[in-house]
Automatic annotation (TrEMBL):
N-terminal signal peptide: 1-21
Organism, scientific name: Corallococcus caeni
Keywords: Signal
Record-linked SUPFAM superfamilies: EreA/ChaN-like
Domain of life: Bacteria
This protein's name: Haem-binding uptake Tiki superfamily ChaN domain-containing protein
The keyword Signal belongs to this UniProt entry's keyword annotation: yes
Length: 474
């Protein structure tokens, strides 16, 4: 336990500013209990017991550590687990506080070491050698570093540890759960007993910096992504989880064919059994001869995570809006019409709309067509609150379909995606003004890893063994 206490001190030294939050109004300062430590600690034990977070305890030092808990519990391929180390601290003889350290482990890669320098440019390169920075459409972009102002407010600073970080979100969550029971009140004749409400707990992953600033009723947040990564679907699932567990109703718009609307809705309302998975995956979309990343294993897993949130009674809705039979401006117009109908039908909800990074631009024109009006541009003209964020990431891989100059056919497979390292922590950051593509900022997903088509990983049948690597040409 002494090593655990040392970790707590280390995490405190690394923690600065607001650490992100599930509760929309989590302060960026410590919660102090107006009772002695010995009086507060039994309620802390009871909170973690009621939240179904089993723990071991060093009773002599008032420190407990929970068992590992997987994100979205039961997720097929989430690959991330968290545990909490909780330390009672004596503020004064009559006051106390908690330090809660979130410790994360992943099957994908170790956590980054502290001290990395932030780089706020969003230029990227896609290709086998990653030599030429390009956008999803193949056009070149410039760093525009002079325009990317240093982040302010909630995103101003953050530090990471290879082992753990202090979690103010969880500290205040516990405080709000037990402080009312500890409050010293004089009983009155008219006072009625308060029914005990067991706290519900969903592990949504580490808080995404900057997320809650974007979550407004009636707001539309457009995320322009690079298809075919494991990280973007996880970013979406975590964002939704953190918002709905804080009481924000969220509708997710996915760039999947509208023909799949009923099938996806049915799956989200199902028990997620083998038959439910088979019905979801039997659509032609998942078996496209040119899988561009939208039908990936990670996307299928994201749908399962959203299904689990709905199964807990949380307010999550999903719609799809792609019209793949159309192209060019006709397609943009159709995408816009479908998204607009969803937003206007539920103006009290927060809409998170994900697409390739051409559709989400809010500026008119493309390098090859100055009159081109992307979906984001059209939505901005018809809605009051539209924010577009471009994807930023660290160098890695993605499942990408690109034109093969020799065969003149689409070449789909795992390819290098060149980005810039801003650490492993997910965040959103907005600039003081939009860039020339109409993006208002970036959402950052860390190192990217390719996610193969779901059907190649056996997700057409959840009990099937993963498919062997294909020997066909990519």
């Amino acid at each position: 336990m002494r090593s655990m206490l040392k970790l707590g001190w280390l995490a405190l030294l690394l923690m600065v500013g607001c650490a992100g939050r599930q509760d929309l109004e989590t302060p960026d300062y410590e919660a102090v209990y107006d009772v002695p430590l010995e009086e507060m600690w039994p309620s802390v034990r009871q909170y973690f017991t009621d939240a179904h977070l089993p723990y071991r305890e060093d009773r002599g030092s008032m420190v407990l550590e929970t068992e590992w808990k997987q994100e979205f519990g039961g997720s097929k391929i989430a690959g991330y687990w968290h545990r909490y180390m909780v330390m009672g601290k004596r503020e004064t003889p009559t006051k106390s506080k908690l330090w809660i350290i979130r410790i994360t482990k992943s099957v994908n890669k170790t956590l980054s070491q502290p001290g990395k320098e932030l780089d706020w440019s969003v230029s990227r390169g896609i290709g086998l050698n990653g030599a030429e920075p390009t956008l999803e459409d193949g056009s070149s972009v410039e760093d525009d570093e002079d325009r990317l102002s240093f982040p302010v407010g909630e995103n101003a600073f953050y530090m990471e540890s290879g082992q753990g970080t202090r979690d103010l979100t969880m500290e205040w969550r516990v405080f709000r759960g037990i402080a009312p029971k500890l409050a010293k009140k004089q009983p009155t004749k008219t006072e009625q007993p308060v029914a005990k409400a067991a706290p519900t707990f969903t592990e949504c992953g580490q808080s995404i910096l900057g997320l809650t600033k974007q979550a407004k009723a009636g707001g539309v947040l457009l995320l322009g992504e690079l298809h075919g990564t494991q990280e973007v679907p996880r970013f979406i699932a975590q964002s939704v989880c953190q918002l709905v567990t804080s009481g924000v109703p969220v509708t997710v718009g996915l760039e999947l064919p509208v023909e799949n609307e009923a099938r996806i809705t049915t799956f989200l309302q199902s028990q997620g059994g083998e038959v439910d998975w088979l019905k979801l995956m039997e659509a032609p979309f998942w078996r496209s001869p040119y899988p561009d990343g939208r039908g990936s294993e990670a996307v299928a897993n994201m749908l399962e995570q959203l299904r689990q949130l709905r199964a807990q009674g949380l307010d999550v809705a999903v719609f799809v809006y792609d019209h793949p039979k159309l192209s060019g401006q006709q397609r943009e117009d159709a995408l816009t019409k479908t998204v607009l109908a969803q937003v206007k039908a539920a103006p009290q909800r927060f809409h998170l709309v994900v697409s390739g990074n051409i559709h989400s631009r809010t500026a008119k024109g493309l390098p090859w067509d100055k009159q081109y009006r992307p979906m984001g541009y059209l939505l901005k003209d018809q809605l009051d609150d539209v924010t577009a964020l471009d994807m930023a990431y660290d160098t890695g891989t993605a499942w990408i379909c690109a034109a093969n100059e020799q065969s003149r056919k689409l070449d789909c497979g795992v390819k290098e995606a060149k980005g810039k390292d801003n650490g492993d922590r997910f965040f959103m950051h907005t600039w003081s003004s939009a860039n020339k593509e109409g993006y208002h900022g970036v959402f950052y997903v860390g190192h990217v890893t390719a996610s193969e088509p779901a059907v190649l990983k056996g997700l057409g049948n959840p009990d099937a063994a993963p498919a062997q690597e294909s020997t066909s040409s990519l």
